[in-house]
Design goal:
The chain has 719 residues and is α+β, with helices and mostly antiparallel strands. It has helices spanning 8-84, 86-93, 120-130, 268-273, 362-370, 402-455, 474-524, 531-547, 552-557, 568-578, 602-619, 677-687; strands spanning 108-109, 134-135, 141-146, 155-164, 182-189, 192-203, 210-215, 218-219, 235-244, 257-266, 290-296, 305-306, 330-335, 345-351, 381-388, 391-398, 560-562, 564-567, 587-590, 597-600, 626-631, 637-645, 691-697, 700-708, 716-718. Strands 1, 2, 3, 4, 5, 6, 7, 8, 9, 10, 11 and 12 form a 12-stranded mixed β-sheet that branches. The model is unreliable at 1-11, 23-31, 548-552, 668-672 and 712-719 (pLDDT under 50).
């Protein structure tokens, strides 16, 4: 049954239109949510893959940091153990050993106070344990050193070995020293040169298997006479083993045999310094002392051994510790302060050699550096104190955590190809679903939205072609059903339009027949003073209102709204999301993050907001956004602020823009914009118990719509 005063055909047409629009509105949101769901699912899958890779990198970085710190302390313990050995202490007492060539020979400071040079075994053991022997290509060895105790005497010890044939001994009373094997020693220090020549004199074996004798020292360059006395404090011994160096020549009497010599040189300059009040030992210029040792055969033949021969290999020095350092690690050796030394001083610094690291990606390197790990930024150091006869030394091994980053970045670069392959698989899967399903859903959604626009047209018909979306799958069946439904609705609308036109013609005819007698009565009662004229005018006006063309403002003002509970947060989000379908792009909604309940008519509120958006669309600069902001305090009214950049509203019309017929458009556009939209918005807001206002702001115009927050039941309000 149609409402009173409304044609039956028009009522049925409105029913069909409302049913179609209601059917289209709810499903129109579902495909949009499905698109967001599908795309969000793949985006989350890609993010999860990346998050997993980053988490693994962070865990590996933490493990690498702990392993590096543990390895650094183990390396420091190994270095400290090596430096505590006499060989290491020799390196600590002679920090400049690695910075000078092997030849010419310079005396070293021994980790022992003195050497028992008279005992072959003790002298050889001391030299080998201290590691001060230079190694020559022919197998000869030589060590020139001083003891670390100044009160043991200012002597230079010469310990070494060489290979030679049978030794020719110097006979007592023989003045020609060239007939025997002899040792020539030259010492140069502080601008002075000391030379000794020491011929070999055989002694009894004393239980030694081989030849044993002493080296009697004379001043070299001075002719030997019967009155020449050997140097008193010069002491030297020479032992030759009984076995041949080459076992294959064991039966050869002239085979080369290993000879070991031990000499103590008296250096008067050193000995005189010991008698000072506070002697300094070792001498500060010890590294400038040059020692040369030559073993001469009888006659004028070339020396059997010369300490200045090329190819000598230095003993262990601090520089040899560099092989134990990893890239980026630094080893510092400092001598701690004593009452005589003053402040601590650094003796040596070694830096680990940089290796040819694997190539790594720069952005992976930056990512790994930014991954947070507890204690990773703190410097890693390992310290150790080593005591020597000449003082305490501090060993500081400093690590460089950047090498952990570089190594991890190189590994991550190799693994990144697998992560990239996983992301590529996710991308290809998403593209396949996007092209096969999401694209068709998008087309179906857009065309379904266009149906709403079509039914609001003058003829009320929706012309949408869905033939290209038909198919045997679910979307194809849905498109076919929608096409059939639209066809059925359009046919019903056409029949209702024909019936409504017929009824309208009938009512116009009835109205015309009624107006004719009334106009005749007006002619009969033409006098203004006629009392009947007043009643005839009232009847004529009533007929014109009922059957004539009433003004739009009156039609809008008499509209009835159906108020109900509405979530304003969700409503505005849907309006902003569906704005592009209405031709309004770049509508941004700033939400509160919680439901906001108001009492309103959904379609009327949407109509009011849409009119404001269309007004903002006309005046905003191209490409700028329209911002919708919802402000909802816990008590009071909810405010919807719609802001658009652009020119301000003229001050002369800002107070009248909500009146019917008032428009801010140029005069040339008044035909297209009749000043009706904002009037509709104000009227509907008033019917819902709200307000609407506009004001100019710094960068544009802002409209404010307010509605009271409530959770009451929907009620029907009629103006």
């Amino acid at each position: 049954m149609s409402p009173p005063g409304r044609p039956k055909g028009e009522y049925r047409s409105a029913q069909h239109e409302g049913a179609l629009i209601s059917w289209l509105r709810l499903p129109g949101r579902v495909p949009f949510r499905l698109r967001v769901f599908f795309r969000g699912a793949f985006a989350l899958l890609a993010l999860a893959t990346l998050a997993l890779a980053v988490n693994v990198l962070q865990d590996e970085k933490e493990r690498s940091h702990l392993n590096y710190a543990e390895g650094l302390h183990k390396n420091q313990a190994q270095i400290a153990a090596r430096l505590r050995h006499p060989t290491g202490q020799l390196a600590l007492l002679n920090p400049g050993l690695a910075q000078r060539p092997a030849t010419p020979l310079h005396p070293l400071v021994l980790p022992f106070s003195a050497i028992d040079f008279d005992d072959r075994n003790k002298a050889q053991q001391a030299a080998e344990m201290a590691g001060c022997l230079l190694q020559y290509p022919d197998g000869s060895t030589l060590c020139a050193a001083v003891g670390n105790n100044p009160y043991a005497g200012g002597f230079i010890y010469i310990i070494g070995s060489f290979a030679s044939g049978p030794l020719a001994a110097h006979l007592p009373g023989e003045l020609d020293l060239a007939r025997s094997h002899r040792v020539r020693i030259t010492v140069t220090l502080r601008g002075q040169t000391y030379r000794w020549i020491a011929p070999f004199e055989v002694l009894d074996d004393g239980g030694f298997t081989g030849v044993r004798g002493r080296l009697t020292g004379f001043v070299d360059g001075v002719p030997v006479t019967p009155s020449t006395r050997p140097v008193r404090d010069f002491r030297g011994w020479l032992w030759q083993e009984g076995r041949c160096v080459d076992p294959a020549r064991a039966d050869d009497a002239d085979c080369a045999k290993r000879s070991f010599m031990s000499v103590r040189l008296p250096v008067e300059v050193f000995r005189d310094a010991l008698f000072q009040k506070r002697p300094v030992w070792p001498p500060p210029d010890l590294d400038q002392v040059v020692v040369r040792v030559q073993v001469l055969a009888p006659g004028e033949a070339p020396p059997l051994f010369d300490s200045d021969a090329q190819g000598a290999v230095l003993p262990f020095s601090l520089a040899d510790l560099q092989a134990l350092l990893l890239p980026g690690e630094t080893l510092s050796v400092r001598k701690l302060a004593t009452s005589a030394d003053g402040a601590p001083r650094e003796l040596f610094r070694l830096v680990g050699a940089s290796d040819n690291a694997e190539p790594s990606s720069p952005w992976l390197d930056r990512l790994i550096r930014r991954l947070p790990v507890d204690g990773f930024d703190a410097p890693i150091e390992a310290r150790e104190l080593i005591a020597t006869p000449l003082g305490r030394h501090e060993i500081v091994l400093t690590g460089d955590v950047r090498t952990v980053n570089q190594g991890l970045a190189a590994v991550a670069t190799r693994v990144s190809w697998f992560v990239s392959a996983m992301l590529l698989a996710v991308l290809l899967t998403w593209l396949a679903i996007e092209l096969r399903i999401i694209r068709r859903i998008t087309l179906l959604t857009k065309r379904a939205a266009s149906v709403s626009t079509g039914v609001r047209a003058a003829d009320g018909l929706a012309s949408v072609d869905l033939s290209d979306l038909r198919g045997s799958d679910e979307l194809g069946v849905l498109a076919q059903g929608l096409q059939d439904l639209l066809h059925r609705v359009n046919e019903d609308l056409r029949r209702e339009q024909i019936r409504a036109e017929q009824e309208k013609d009938m009512w116009h005819a009835v109205g015309h027949e009624i107006l004719s007698p009334l106009q005749s009565l007006m002619a009969l009662h033409a006098e203004p003073a006629d009392p009947s004229r007043r009643y005839v005018s009232r009847m004529l006006q009533a007929v014109r209102v009922l059957y004539g063309n009433a003004s739009p403002s009156e039609a809008i003002a008499t509209t009835t709204l159906q108020l109900q509970a509405l979530d304003l947060e969700e409503f505005l989000a849907n309006v902003a999301a569906n704005a592009p379908y209405m031709g309004i792009e770049q509508v941004v909604f700033v939400a509160t993050g919680r439901p906001v309940r108001v009492r309103a008519d959904e379609y009327s509120l949407e109509e009011a907001v849409t009119h404001v958006l269309r007004n903002a669309e006309r005046f905003r600069p191209a490409g700028t956004p329209i911002t919708i902001t919802l402000e909802a305090p816990t008590d009071g009214a909810a405010s919807v602020r719609i802001h658009n950049p652009g020119p301000p509203i003229a001050e002369q019309i800002i107070d009248t823009i909500f009146e019917y017929g008032v428009s801010g458009s140029p005069e040339g556009e008044l035909g297209a914009h009749r000043g009706q939209g904002l009037f509709v918005a104000k009227t509907y807001m008033a019917k819902m118990g709200g307000t609407i206002s506009a004001r100019n702001v710094a960068d544009g115009v802002e409209f404010t719509l307010t509605l009271p927050q409530t959770a009451a039941r929907a009620s029907k309000v009629k103006a």
